[in-house]
């Protein structure tokens, strides 16, 4: 049986702080010093102060992009009929693909504003993104949402979720936390530690896009599709469909980066 978790982590007076919101806050707190360290590695890209300043843009990109992405990709007709529901973020509904687009736009604007190389700066930010992905999936699990497809009762870790009916299901949130979070974070930090990868601007960004697309597509085989969408043509899901352009963009960026000479300076 699914553990009896309280979706509210704690209260501050009348304010209820939920695990999902806490996951976002903790993610930014952990990721910030790591991003600062990555930006100081050769070739140096941005100062500590610039990384601090980018935090505001990153938060804005994640929240606005994630919410609008969910509205447009997963429930456009529902929100078109009830547009005020878009602002009810406390009811849930965030899309990673939308959040990714939001952060890309934030990176582009911030890089332009501060005269930084867009690809070089993006390369030093994306390695820490899996921290938020992993903690976010853990929060999904605590909330008992986004559960997996039916699983064999013999599977030791199969669970009966409160809103998933009486059948055992895959805890797909934990699968995603391990692959999109722990595994992808390990790959990205290892790659970022290699000077050859850092000196080819765009390679780390491409690796992240491709790595996430592979991890998410794999986990979608265990995750129950959204009820309002269901399965698409050929048994695919919306998550897998959205990962196709992400994977192609990632491969394109890596090829582009490897064909260019190594860079010793990240300044535009």
Automatic annotation (TrEMBL):
NCBIfam families: lgt. Keywords: Cell membrane, Membrane, Transferase, Transmembrane, Transmembrane helix. The chain crosses the membrane at residues 15-34, 54-74, 94-112, 201-218, 238-258. Catalyzes the transfer of the diacylglyceryl group from phosphatidylglycerol to the sulfhydryl group of the N-terminal cysteine of a prolipoprotein, the first step in the formation of mature lipoproteins. The gene is lgt. PROSITE patterns: LGT (PS01311). Signal peptide: none annotated. GO terms for molecular function: transferase activity. The lineage of its organism: Bacteria, Pseudomonadati, Pseudomonadota, Alphaproteobacteria, Acetobacterales. It is a multi-pass membrane protein. A 1,2-diacyl-sn-glycero-3-phospho-(1'-sn-glycerol) binds at residue 137. It comes from Gluconobacter cerevisiae. HAMAP family: Lgt. PANTHER family: PHOSPHATIDYLGLYCEROL--PROLIPOPROTEIN DIACYLGLYCERYL TRANSFERASE, PROLIPOPROTEIN DIACYLGLYCERYL TRANSFERASE. It comes from the Bacteria. Its EC number is 2.5.1.145. Pathway: Protein modification; lipoprotein biosynthesis (diacylglyceryl transfer). InterPro entries: Lgt. It is found in: Cell membrane. The keyword Transferase applies. Coiled coil: none annotated. This is Phosphatidylglycerol--prolipoprotein diacylglyceryl transferase. Belongs to the Lgt family. Its main location: membrane.
């Amino acid at each position: 049986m699914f553990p009896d978790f309280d979706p509210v982590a704690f209260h501050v007076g009348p304010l209820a702080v939920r695990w999902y919101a806490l996951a976002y806050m903790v993610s930014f707190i952990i990721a910030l010093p790591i991003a600062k360290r990555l930006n100081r590695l050769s070739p140096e890209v941005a100062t500590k102060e610039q990384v601090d300043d980018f935090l505001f843009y990153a938060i804005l990109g994640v929240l606005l992009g994630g919410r609008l992405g969910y509205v447009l990709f997963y429930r456009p007709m529902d929100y078109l009929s009830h547009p005020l529901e878009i602002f009810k973020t406390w009811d849930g509904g965030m899309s990673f693909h939308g959040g990714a687009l939001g952060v890309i736009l934030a990176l582009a604007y911030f890089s332009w504003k501060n005269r930084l190389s867009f690809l070089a700066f993006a390369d030093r930010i994306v390695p820490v993104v899996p921290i938020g992905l992993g903690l976010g999936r853990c929060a999904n699990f605590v909330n008992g949402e986004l559960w997996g497809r039916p699983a064999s009762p013999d599977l030791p870790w199969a669970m009966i979720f409160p809103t998933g009916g009486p059948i055992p299901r895959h805890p797909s949130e934990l699968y995603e936390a391990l692959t999109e979070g722990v595994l992808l974070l390990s790959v990205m930090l290892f790659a970022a530690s290699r000077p050859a990868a850092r000196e080819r601007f765009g390679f780390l960004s491409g690796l992240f896009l491709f790595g996430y697309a592979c991890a998410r597509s794999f986990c979608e085989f265990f995750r129950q599709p959204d009820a309002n969408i269901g399965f698409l043509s050929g048994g695919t899901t919306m998550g897998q469909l959205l990962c196709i352009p992400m994977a192609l963009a990632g491969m394109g960026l890596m090829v582009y980066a490897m064909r260019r000479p190594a860079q010793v300076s990240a300044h535009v």
